[in-house]
Amino acid sequence: RTQSSDLIISCDADKAFDRISWSYLRRFLKYHSFGVPILNLFNALYDAPSATITTNGLNSTPFLLERGTRQGCPLSPLLFNLALEPLLRIFQTCPDLSGIQVGAQEVRVVAFADDLLLFLSRPDKALPTLLTFLTEFHLASGFKLNYDKTLAIPLGTDYGSLTGQHNPFRWNRTGTFKYLGVLIPTTIAKLYEVNIPPLLSQLKNLFTSWAKLPLSYLGRCSLIKMVAFPRLLYPIQMLPLLLKRKDIAHIHALFTRFIWNGGRPRIALRKLQLPYNMGGLNLPDMQSYNVAALYRIVADWIADTSRYTDCALDRAMSFPSSPLAILHSPLSGIPPILRSNPLLFTGRE
User: Fold this and answer.
1) Cα–Cα distance between 3 and 69 in angstroms, integer?
2) pLDDT for residue 68
3) Per the record, a Pfam family (predicted)?
4) Cβ(143)–Cβ(20) below 8 Å
């Protein structure tokens, strides 16, 4: 932590997809000239639909629906993204909402669907403006934050005056919060320890709960591939971290113990990890998946794209060097401050 008053607001939307007003969306589409075909498609889905509630076999009087995107409709995520676009534009352009500087890059907002992170460098001046914008946007669109679950995370120690101000956010002084299912500490060096050990503990508990299931070893392999492995894959893809060898060995040991129900393995795990055409069962190799996830980031650095990482932010974090220079530099040539940053240094492994 530093002496700054920088602040992160981790926003929790209150019934996000259910609150968006259809009249607001219709006005938005017309204002941005989406054209008659798109408007007709929208009206076909959202023009005065009605619903009834069935209780004990009796139907209520039909009532009109006025808000909310349809569940399961492939158009719903796109409509929700469009609905939030004006709010995000305000966050990006309003002079009273200054973001956090990372090198030459200013970071103000990160958004994925209804998961929003706001970065404020002068929160004493920005918070009143922010609350005004959120209130006005709620009245216009129906979008509303759940302030009981919205967290204010101070990045520095100079935030005492902020807690005394009237604001509806919950203050998180632990410095760790969850975003997109991943724990984010304010001290980036702790990124590994706050995510990976708990993940391995959850995996162990999962296998323990399955231990007495009447499954063959083929069924247990299928259960690993269909249920256990996806729970590992998501955080591995989200976190730009190279797993420690002991943790990979621990995961593979859990796989082996579960497959053979605690008994002596009759087939080595490395053989089960071979593809089907080589006599294996295509069981996942965690090291290969981990390295492949990191290579996606390196590929973005090489191609200067941002499919899996924000290249502009990575360049700012590695200034005065660059991500590609770090990849091609000997260890002795990398500044210590960059060497201690796991988000950048992992790419060299």
Assistant:
1) 44
2) 81
3) RVT_1
4) yes
Residue the block writes with tokens 């460098």: 121
Distance CA 54, CA 219 (A): 41
As a three-state string, the secondary structure of the chain is CECCCCEEEEECECCHHHHCEHHHHHHHHHHCCCCHHHHHHHHHHHCCCEECCEECCEECCCEECCECCCCCCCCHHHHHHHHHHHHHHHHHHCCCCCCEEECCEEECEEEECCEEEEEECCHHHHHHHHHHHHHHHHHHHCCCECCCCCEEEECECCCHHHHHCCCCCEECCCCEEEECCEEEECCHHHHHHHHHHHHHHHHHHHHHHHCCCCCCHHHHHHHHHHHHHHHHHHHHHHCCCCCCHHHHHHHHHHHHHHHCCCCCCCCCHHHHCCCHHHCCCCCCCHHHHHHHHHHHHHHHHHHCCCCCCCHHHHHHHHCCCCHHHHHHCCHHHCCHHHHCCHHHHHHHC
With a cut of 50, which residues of the chain have pLDDT below it?
1, 347-349
Question: Residue 210's pLDDT is what?
Answer: 94
Note the pLDDT of residue 349. Answer: 46
Residue pair 145/134 in contact by the 8 Å Cβ criterion = yes
